[in-house]
Amino acid sequence: MQNFVLNLTNENVTLTAYLPDYSPEMPYLDKRSAVLVIPGGGYYMCSDREAEPVAFGFLGSGFAAFILRYSLKENSAFPRPLDDAREALKIIREHAEEWRIDPQKIAAIGFSAGGHLTAALSTMSDERPNAQILGYPCILEKIGKILAEPIPGVDTEVDEKTPPAFIFASSEDDCVPIINSLEYAKALDKYKIPFEMHIFSQGWHGFSRADDTVYGKDEEVEYNKDCNIWFDLCVRWLKKIFK
Prior knowledge:
alpha/beta; Rossmann fold; globular
């Protein structure tokens, strides 16, 4: 596997690549699909719990994986983070042949504030992923009060060019209420954009993989364990989208 870090244009913004090696034993993986991972953290930080554990999961499922660590804190006013995500996606496509990636099979996955950035990349950018995966995403403009900087609402930005979506969240999330996910799904439905959505009855905000790859205490794993099925459901959905 190749692993390297690229510095992007904006200060302290990086793109970390994990590229599986090609093997003639698996010729059907000559060109892989790819996933761009965009962690959450309120635009104050990029959560490590929503970075490598997620990227490694997709690696193990046959995808190339990338992690974007984007502009934060005083540098996070829009559209700066969106510029970071657009640049990352463009770099992946520009190097698709070299990195053995299918440039038309690139998904972006984002969590919480990273979900907002993923949805913005999928609706407001001239460079869009081919699929979007949103984990307990910040969507509505009013949720900006808990973030480092105000954000544009992305539910109003959905159009006919928006890619298919996979959305998951917990109904007991009192940090980013599920109205954010529901309003985004409503906007997707308005434009007949295919989507799949799973709302779990129990789970903390920021549950990520919801297993012992991100939780160190048994009681944390136990409480969130019913949410961890999102990953297998997502991989199944994504492989169907990218047939």
